[in-house]
């Protein structure tokens, strides 16, 4: 775990933004699956909240890496963080609108999630070029690659509806695509948590000269 006295000099709010976002995601998923059997009306609302929670986690997960990597260039902090926030708000609005919540727009919703993930590639490539000589490069890259893979594989299960498409009815209680999707979302959040700790530790050691 993080040692608190080392972090005293470093800004910790971006880290907590991510923590609150991922806790909101896990809470809304739990609420959704606990109470979705209540009624059809509540079921539809809760299922939307399930995806809104994941979107909130994706947006907030951008805060620690972008903030700490580009701490010495506030211009890029603003560009990337406002970019992902605008994309996220657009996705949430889409998820909450009844028209786009139907099965017909399933792939469209998947594309929205994918594009938020792909947007992350731009600051990622930028960061790798900026910090090519840093010893932490490979560790954070490995963590973030694990995160990206988790989200991609999770979305793939969501879109293809594997394995229940092969044996309809057999996976109704356990093992269907939506459950696998949630497992990969948690794996993605965990590996991102690992990366965020490295960024935070790095900044509390090095700081920023221009400040
Ligand atoms: Zn769910």
TrEMBL record:
Entry membrane topology: Multi-pass membrane protein
GO molecular function: kinase activity
Cellular localization per UniProt: Membrane
Major place of residence: membrane
The keyword ATP-binding belongs to this UniProt entry's keyword annotation: no
Transmembrane intervals: 15-37, 49-70, 76-96, 108-129, 141-159, 180-200
Keyword Cell cycle part of the UniProt annotation: no
One family name in Pfam for this protein: HlyIII
Record key words, sorted: Kinase, Membrane, Transferase, Transmembrane, Transmembrane helix
Protein known as: Casein kinase I
Origin species: Datura stramonium
High-level lineage: Eukaryota, Viridiplantae, Streptophyta, Embryophyta, Tracheophyta
Gene: HHP1_1
